[in-house]
Write a structure and sequence with these properties.
The protein is of the alpha/beta class. It contains 3 helices and 7 strands, in the order E-E-E-E-E-H-E-H-E-H. The protein has a domain of about 100 residues. About 15% of the residues are buried.
């Protein structure tokens, strides 16, 4: 199954001022046909995308997964730190039933071990990304 949509991608670069000069805003519009990721030509290549630790952001997960599937990622690893309302597991179970192997969840909560990150709002983000590189 192949489908195409005519999409306009808008690219904005913000302006900034340095001591010597002002750099203007660049704005561009590009028409791009999007092609479904479910084409008949299956490739041996696969791209895995790891999240930084997910901290009460599961409500954005479906949009995040679908966008990244459109741009070519075929596996998602989610580092979960705090989702306790079963919203994440509902989303993951739905994807697992429809697309086995698409989403993996790694429970990433060090508070039970009594560990505290240097920056409390970071939730061991660097360590999670290193863990993903080693695992996948």
């Amino acid at each position: 199954q192949l489908w195409k949509l005519n999409q306009t991608i808008r690219v904005y670069l913000a302006s900034t001022t340095t001591k010597d000069r002002k750099i203007p805003i660049l704005k561009a519009f590009v028409k791009v046909p999007l092609v479904s990721i479910t084409s008949s030509n299956s490739s041996q290549e696969s791209f895995t995308l790891c999240t930084s630790p997910l901290h009460n952001k599961a409500k954005y997960l479906v949009q995040w997964i679908e966008f990244h599937r459109l741009v070519g990622f075929s596996k998602f690893v989610i580092y979960n730190t705090t989702d306790t309302d079963d919203y994440l597991s509902t989303i993951v179970n739905t994807y697992t039933q429809k697309y086995p192997g698409l989403v993996d969840v790694v429970q990433w909560n060090f508070s039970t071990l009594g560990l505290v990150d240097v920056l409390p709002t970071r939730y061991f983000q660097t360590e999670a990304l290193h863990d993903c590189l080693i695992r996948y």
